């Protein structure tokens, strides 16, 4: 586990983007595991800038996303497919047939989970998986639980996650309560993992992830077992270490 301490969010975003860019340059047809939320936005801005400068070519890149809300259509402005299109995909030359997300409108939950696991398997796994860190230690939407979920599954979101998402929705009733998420085993099979964390509010949970026991009550703690994890965190997030 390599830990890079950076000054602030901008430096975190730049350094993380450089690592992803290096992966794309070294293996133009790589499979990227991508994340959503506020934390990766700066990273995607940096990657777009690299593409616009002519330094990056995403035409052969494939990507799989960690998760998607159940019940949100692809064109809903709060769906993660919409997020990825507007924050990254529409601004680079990745092919539409080369990026994958769970289908939030799937009628059969188990069938959708199996389908998505098969997508990842067909791509021969993920070369580099980008992760953010939830306040309760979740990665993707793998919430604290009694065991680590292996494959893609439908999860009931924790109240702390629902509360954190509330700023994006007009009312509590509008906030999705369930989501499809890539499982811990799928995440751990990625050849490289890049975890990005910023802000003082993440300091306690980041300390538990790095120094605490490996437990499904802190899902990201399982990253201690991965052979190639890079953590980039700002001074505030690392303030307790």
Keyphrases for this structure?
three-stranded antiparallel β-sheet, alpha/beta, 241 residues, Rossmann fold
Structure description:
- The protein has a 7-stranded parallel beta sheet with strand order 1-10-9-6-2-3-5, with helices on both faces. A 3-stranded antiparallel beta sheet has the order 4-8-7, with helices on one face.
- The chain has helices spanning 9-26, 41-52, 80-87, 109-122, 159-165, 184-188, 203-211, and strands spanning 2-6, 31-34, 62-65, 67-69, 99-100, 128-131, 153-156, 178-181, 192-197, 229-234.
- The chain contains 7 helices and 10 strands.
- The longest helix has 18 residues, at 9-26.
- Helices cover 30% and strands 17% of the residues.
- With 241 residues, it is α/β, with parallel strands linked by helices.
- The two termini are 15 Å apart.
- The protein has a single domain (2-234), classed as Rossmann fold, CATH 3.40.50.1360.
- Helix 1 crosses helix 2.
- The radius of gyration is 17 Å and the shape is globular.
Helices and strands in order, then pairings?
Blueprint (H helix, E strand, L loop, with lengths): L1 E5 L2 H18 L4 E4 L6 H12 L9 E4 L1 E3 L10 H8 L11 E2 L8 H14 L5 E4 L21 E4 L2 H7 L12 E4 L2 H5 L3 E6 L5 H9 L17 E6 L7
Parallel strand pairs: 1-10, 2-3, 2-6, 3-5, 6-9, 9-10
Antiparallel strand pairs: 4-8, 7-8
Helix pairs in contact: 1-2
| Beta strand count | 10
Rg from Cα: 17 Å
Shape: globular
Cα separation of the termini: 15 Å
Assembly type of the chains comes to: single chain
Number of domain modules: 1
